[in-house]
Amino acid sequence: MKKIAVAGTGYVGLVAGVCFAEMGHQVTCVDIDQNKVELMRSGISPIYEADLQDLMVKNYQAGRLDYTTDYQVAYKDADAIFIGVGTPEQPDGSANLSYIATVARQIAESVEKDCLVVVKSTVPVGTNDKVDQFIQDFLVNDVRVEVASNPEFLAQGSAVHDTLYAERIIIGTESKWAEELLQDIYKPFNLPVVSVNRRSAEMIKYASNDFLALKISYMNDIANLCELVGADIQDVAKGMSFDERIGSKFLNAGIGFGGSCFPKDTKALDYLAKQNGYELKTVQATIDVNKAQKTMLYKKASRRLITFNGLKVAVLGLTFKPGTDDLREAASLENVPLLLEQGADIYAFDPVGADNFAKVHPEGQHGKGRITYVSNIEEALREANVCFIFTEWGEVKQLTPIMYKELMRTPLVYDGRNIYSVEEMEQAQVEYHSIGRKAVERQNMKESNGHELQSTRY
Ligand code: NAD
Predict the structure, then answer these.
(1) Which atom of ligand 1 sits closest to the CA of residue 30?
(2) Are residues 187 and 244 in the same domain?
(3) Closest by Cα among 46, 27, 212 to 118
(4) Residue 225: CB partners within 8 Å, gap ≥ 6?
(5) Looking at the domain assignment, is residue 439 inside a domain?
(6) For residue range 339-355, what is the model confidence (pLDDT) as tens digits?
(7) Does one domain contain both 70 and 165?
(8) Residue 261 appears among annotated catalytic residues
């Protein structure tokens, strides 16, 4: 059992801290946000992740887990201090390392015994070296402090599962002592460990994330071509998926990737390459395709409708993916302002992300447009003129095609997640536009008696 401190209680820090406690370590999670700390001490998770709150309560009650804003107390006698603070994107695309620097300084001023500082945050190659130097420069007591890299690969929405059953643990160290200490900490997890040097560990994280982002942008690029040449991206993906060299995951086309990682990590690696005089063309293409993809459906709908002004627009899903309340870089954040600007009367549904979205776009009038948050999908769809699907929540997937036909004033659906079968939407007489597949156009639809449908009601 080791005494562990974790700096930052976001998706990475909190989940890591809770899972270390679950494995028997003595953990103190540190955050600068007093409200968050109080919430966690009362047994409530500040983020939505399956199983997280239960494990928080269980380990807190067992005395293995605590939360504090008092970093000095948490860091002074820890065997290892994991850093899980944010490394957000800066305007030039580089990673903002100021939160990491603050924690490094706090550690240097607090530690009273030998300890290993472990950088879990995603940081550009070479950052661990700088953190190491920084700590040595500011170290107050005569103790041994080393720095190791241990990038995190969890996915939001399944963060606890991904941590307890990770496919691999990457540890990047520069000494046997650091390597053995980290191996020891991870021993109870019983997971494959890949041990490399610090710079390689830092690069593994970016190379992995950017490869996944590239896979998504590649499929979106192919999807756009599929539409033009009459192929179906889902059939194409299915055919590709049997090839083990390609793999079956991350082949779904859609309205682009979002979240707190892929967008910033692609930009940060591109920036790092440029700084080193290299042009990372594959990553640049990934970024460009994703940017265009996010508003693909809005552009399609704008061509189809004369105006959004005064139209009731149902927006299903606001978060960047299901299973999380995180909105960072979500497609909704790009599309909703465009719709509001055009005077749309938006009715938005999201099972967990609506409150966070309302902080950015409060309910009510916004210029010509208006946004209302509803907790019932049917309320969003009833008498709507058009519907956009931005997140494939289970609640949205459960809707049948016929419900769009029956509830909407005009059954016109733009599906950014390819939830429905084109044929079923056609049968239900829903005008349906998705990504990389045949569109079900109104003018081509026939009533069951073979007559063309009447024109759309507005
Ligand atoms: P987050 O923004 O959700 O959480 C960061 C937390 O750190 C906040 O609660 C903040 O209050 C706290 N903090 C800031 N300064 C602090 C300080 N001096 N001491 C203590 N706490 C402090 O961040 P996140 O999404 O958990 O991401 C953290 C890092 O992990 C980033 O580098 C990210 O790229 C990486 N990462 C994230 C994910 C993910 O899915 N979110 C996955 C893998 C890696």
Answers:
(1) 20
(2) no
(3) 27
(4) 231
(5) no
(6) 999 999 999 999 999 99
(7) yes
(8) yes
